[in-house]
Design brief:
By secondary structure, the protein is of the alpha+beta class. It has helices at 18-23, 27-37, 49-59, 83-86, 125-130, 134-139, 149-156, 162-168, 203-217; strands at 2-5, 12-15, 39-42, 71-73, 105-112, 120-124, 144-147, 174-177, 179-181, 187-189, 195-198, 223-226, 233-237, 241-245, 255-261.
Length: 268
């Protein structure tokens, strides 16, 4: 396995073949590299759905979802009946902030591409925390943030119908620490489009803090942008990154197949 760092702070390309990946021989190295680098890319691997599921199982416990454990990520409602909800993917987010234990990682392969746009960006929330000045680290030690489904959906639907709003409100709010204290001893920021407000803080101060920290965490030195080619496989550590898709025509037919690994650690 050859490894090439894609940026100084996040992202590594590995060069290997499907047979080696499916054997599980590299699973320990990949898990370690994923925590260190946040994102792993394998170019033009062109795994089948069955191979992608088998590879995912070499890394941990797969999330039983979709057809054959494959979730189709597309804006085509005939291919995914949650396509409207998926429009939130165009904004920085962490998967699973409405749960206490988020998914560990996602594995996504490119099946159809948009002729324009559609890149995926990832930011390293470990590095973003590490580079904060010490006085801010101290100040954020006990800060908690309320995450809501409504917050992320308002990016897409700023003037929802009453029926839509009622649907969002069926999901309970989730209060999480701003700083995730991982069992490894490392710390990362928990931000993204689901972050509604800071618990107990003035509304304007809360909005300013969350906006400033999102800008901080997504500055170029912490970000890797993946330009997809057909058959690419990308794995990202959902516990130490945020991600978003860049804009593309919703009728382009862009199609990604995703598998996910069950979470192994709560937000705390």
């Amino acid at each position: 396995m050859k490894m090439i760092d894609l940026t100084p702070r996040i992202g590594t390309e590995i060069q290997t073949n499907a047979e080696t990946l499916l054997s599980g021989k590299l699973s320990g190295e990949i898990r370690t590299l994923l925590e260190q680098r946040g994102v792993i890319a394998v170019r033009a691997l062109k795994l089948t759905d069955e191979q992608q599921v088998a590879f995912t199982r070499t890394l941990g416990t797969i999330v039983e979802a979709g057809q054959g454990n494959i979730t189709k990520i597309t804006m085509d409602p005939t291919e995914n009946d949650k396509a409207g909800y998926l429009r939130g993917a165009f904004y920085w987010h962490i998967d699973g902030t409405m749960q206490q234990v988020p998914v560990l990682a996602s594995i996504m392969s490119a099946r159809r591409l948009s002729p324009i746009g559609g890149e995926t960006e990832f930011c390293n929330t470990y590095a973003a925390y590490d580079d904060l000045p010490q006085h801010e680290k101290d100040a954020f030690e006990k800060v908690r943030v309320v995450h809501t489904l409504e917050a992320t959906q308002r990016y897409v639907y700023p003037e929802p119908t009453f029926e839509m709003l009622q649907g969002w409100h069926r999901y309970a709010d989730n209060e999480l620490p701003l700083v995730w204290k991982h069992r490894s001893g490392r710390r990362s920021l928990v931000l993204g489009s689901t972050a509604s407000h800071v618990a107990g803080m003035d509304r304007r101060e809360s909005a300013a803090l969350l906006c400033r920290l999102r800008e901080w965490a997504t500055q170029p030195k912490f970000v890797y942008r993946h330009h997809w080619t057909l058959g690419d496989l990308v794995i990202w550590d959902n516990t130490g990154t945020m991600h978003r898709a860049l804009a593309y025509p919703l009728d382009s037919g862009r199609m990604m197949h995703r598998t996910t690994l069950q979470g192994e650690e709560s937000f705390g």
